[in-house]
Amino acid sequence: MPKAPDHRPLSEVLREVADEERVSVGELIDRFGGRALGALLLIFGLACTLPLPPGGTTVFGLPLVLLGPQLLFGARAPWIPQGLRGRDVPTADLKKGLPRVLPWLERAEAVSKPRLHFLFGSWGQRLIGLICSVLAIVLILPIPLGNLLPGAAVSVLALALVQRDGALALVGYALTAASAGVLVLAAGLIARGLGQVLGAITAA
């Protein structure tokens, strides 16, 4: 039988989950109840901000590719394939990474409160879903050090959604803009470098 939804702060639930020997994705969704879609976006977004081995952001970014469009198209609860719902969450890896992100999450929860409700109308939630979908695609690409700002933007927007905190949503939009700026700058530098290399080759 699924556990009753847990209405404690997400940081408390995550700390408890990390201490459990095993918990399935489905059990995690049931525990978060109506907050599950935002909570999952937050969890995978936070994971993408951690220093991960090559390919790590791809692993954690793929669930965001699945979840972001659901929010974009107005879903209130996450749809997860049945086979994935039965898989265990890697609580050992979660326990290693949580000390890095929990202090930030706890501080954000402490100052967060429902405000600027108009940012969470139908269009507002769809905008967050669109941004998370685009950033998810960025996160699965093998861009060196390209995970921090997009992962932080997804995390802040997801927490804003859970807390109904419009001020946090504005911070998330600012981080999204910063992510776009950094990516455009990086793309320009790469294109310039390739141009110089090709120029040197053709001149030789």
Automatic annotation (TrEMBL):
InterPro entries: ExoD
Lineage: Bacteria, Pseudomonadati, Pseudomonadota, Alphaproteobacteria, Caulobacterales
Pfam families membership: ExoD
Full protein name: Exopolysaccharide biosynthesis protein
Organism field: Phenylobacterium soli
Entry keywords, A to Z: Membrane, Transmembrane, Transmembrane helix
Keyword Nucleotidyltransferase: no
TM annotation in the entry: 32-52, 127-146, 166-191
Domain of life: Bacteria
